[in-house]
Structure formats: C-alpha cells, structure tokens
Amino acid sequence: MKEAQDLRAGNCVKIGNDLYIIAKYEYIKGARGASSCKMKMKNLTTNSVSETVYRASDKFEQVVLENKKMQYLYESGDMYTFMDNDTGEQMELNKDDLGDALKYLQEEMVIDIVVYGEKAVGVKLPQQVDLEITYTEPAVKGDTGGKVLKAATVNTGIEVQVPLYCNIGDKIRVDTETNEFVSRAK
DSSP per residue over 65-84, as a string? Predict the structure, then answer.
C-alpha cells in the first residue's frame, strides 16, 4: 500500500475492482498538515477519466503493469490479433482495449501491450509513427505566407495537417499524442 502523497503520474493503482492510471498528479500543501493530492485518473476497464482529490495520507494498492512488445497481425471483426515475436504467444484485443491507437495501427507494427496478470488492459504506442499519404489536394501556387498547412488522409484513414510540399505517396512521421505532422519519413 502506498500513500497518495507517494504516487506520481504514470503510476497504476487499484480502487475497488478497477485499475486506474494516474494521468495528472498535483500535491497541494495545506495548513496544519492537511495536505491533499489532486489526481486525474483513467479507468482501464471503462476508459473513463475522472478527477478526484484525496487526502495525502489516503492509502492505495499500487499495481505494477507489464509491457509486452507485440506485433500486430490482423483484424477479424472487432478483434485485433497481436503476437509476441519471442514466444509466439498470441493475444486478442477489441476496439475498446485499443482506443485511439486504432488511428495509427498498421500491419506488422510492433507496439507495447500493457498487461495486468494475463489480461491486456491497454496499449502504448511509439511517440511517432510513419504513415503514407493516400490523398491530399495539390498546393495552391502563391499560398506560401507563414506556416501554411493542408489536410491529408493517410493509409490508416485519419486526417493530418501537413505542409504544402507534401504529396500523395509521401511517407510522413506523425506524433501519436498530438496527431501532428513531425517530418518527412526517411
């Protein structure tokens, strides 16, 4: 058991039967030892986010999650199959387990599957992924004032704002947290 004041963003705790990842953590020092901790937490079962204030002395059961590097194989209906390249073990996740990661998921891509016991509770994408532009409008000649961007659809189906010099077929690097263009991919 850990006290609320000893937790940090990124820690995982168990409250009741649900697991929560702490997304934001703020320690608030109070008068006469009445300190508190404000936490924004994501429920790993329901994917809901809540913000709560706890006393600094409140106790939590800390849970250690394991990250397994697994390769995405294929989609079958609402299920997505991943394989551990070392052991050959396969694991299926549904759309809810993957959440926003679906926007960037490509066949043969290796990602971290977050596991608690034998159950997958989430995924962790790389900070940046390489995607191919499948559709974008040609640049308008003379439209070069400042940082001008245009919409581009990539091979996973999402839309990303890219610089005017990007064309259909170009490979680009996209930040998975902000969905922003980073650079051309090599």
Answer: -EEEEEEEEEEETTEEEEE-
